[in-house]
Amino acid sequence: MSQQAGYSPNFKRPAEIMRMRRKRARSEAGAFSSGAGSTSSPGQSDSSPACVRPFSPGPLHRSGGGLKRRNPFANIENTFSPKKKLVVYNDEGDAEAVDSNQGNKLTEKEGEEDMPRKRQCRAALPFSARLTEVEQQELQDAPGKSLNFSEDDSLFEEEEEDVKSPLLKSPQAIAPASIAPPVCTQYPTDWSLKTRVLFTSPLSLSWAENPKAQEEALGLSQHCRAQFTSLPHSIQDPRSCSELRCAFQQSLVYWQHPTLPWISLFPRINAERSFTGKCTPWAQDTALQKSLMSEWSVSLSSLYSLLKTRLCPYFYLCSYQFTVLFRAAGLGGSGSITAFISPTTRGLREAMKAEGIEFSLPLVDERRKSKEQQEVEVEQMEKAQDCSELKESEGCQEAEEGESCGYNNDDEDDDDGSFSWLKEMGVQDKIKKPDSISIQLRKEGTAVSLDHKPESVVCVEGSHTFTLINFLINCKSLVATAGSQAGLPPTLLAPTAFRGATMHTLKARSVNVKSQVGSTYQSISSLEITGPILPSSLQAVTALLRPAQKGNFAATLYTHAPSAVMNTQSNKQQCAAGSVDLCGCGLHPASIQQLQQPSSLGKTALTHINMNNYSYTWKN
Length: 620
Hints:
19 strands; 3 domains
């Protein structure tokens, strides 16, 4: 080819490919020329091309060697034939049509007269020209199955002949409701205090702010009287729903003692910055400190009396060193009053022991039990292995006498200072024995290593909680003697009123933000709530967002770190939920039902809550 202007050699067709195409066309034309020239269908027009059935639903061979495009107006049901035929090439290269039901060999022209869209073959037929050895072996190993392939001879499908399941033949028959995920209407109980919660939703959350004076007053009144309003499953216009806005104001209320308007008294641990530069007149005034502690003691005693009579469900004591959670009987799956203290130190635990307060370390006990169980399993495996070795060599005499084969474990514990094994080795005089003081220091070192850690959480139950109240009132180390919090009593927080308490409300602020989703930005409404968020307040707010946001919202939770381990369960036997009457504690029945369940979070707390289509998911 002569080089022309604008001609690029990249568009030249390779000669080898053109030769192969011409060779393939000649071979296919030769294979079908005999069948096409000798036999013709009586119903077929003379002007129709050879080897082409009118209104064919699939691609078929033409006499020219190419493929005819599928007729889009063909009706597959009208062209369906009960007899399935297949074109097979014999050893001489001639094409023959084989009836898959009777095994009769037809000519190519006869087979094309009633050729369906899909052709079927049996595993017994010789397909050496089209199947590999692996496929032939799979056909032999799979009786009762047939191999189907489409017109292009490249798509193979296996199907069971006897299976007539409608689900296999019609996947659309599966109802969407049958495969829908289960609906979770409640998230786990979380006994930790939250400092901030950020709610987001595709629907507007502006209804939660700027309440009217009448709505705010009604919400506070309903909280004091423990009156609750039932809301519908879905609210069309939350901003115009006065009952919803009143209930939201009711859910933000909490009670606190002491109250200093110019200082934030929560949190108290590592909160020196919030006290720095503030006016603290009690720091150098001893009389003022005694007055504050006297009022605080009265408030703490009042709270415990309400807790004991189940008129207050729970309350928190937040000092500058630790946080205490008191729960009424029936909450958290416990049948008695429980108190959790976190974090603790060895000095505090020793002082509690000196006062006769019995307590447990749930996380330490749990770790010790798991470790002992592992050691017992390893010991049993070693004993079984040693016993089998003794039986093989010289026999086990203890087994013959009916006793268990093993070692005596009476001398395994060396915690009492026994070193009899040194005498057996004959080196008791050469090795210096550790004295009792060294052994005691080693034990104390293990106890001190728990200080200020989550594993140091202490659980007090039953009547010992009353002794704990007296211990906290008279404990001098409960109040800081130096620093920015010197002389200031701990903060008491409760969901219901008590003596000396002040009513407070959480701060709520709604903001509309833009969030990037892929390459676009979507408008998302957010609601931020700050303050000491109690477990019942969190449950009440989420219960209101459920109908207001039509079951679609998400929440990010910020936990007060020392209170995260308070989801740990006590070691005593749990009671059934609902066995203790708590209807007079001032909480919504839904909140009581949730708080009665034992927490499944362990020493962790919730960090995210997501509701999608009225179903909860969460992270911890």
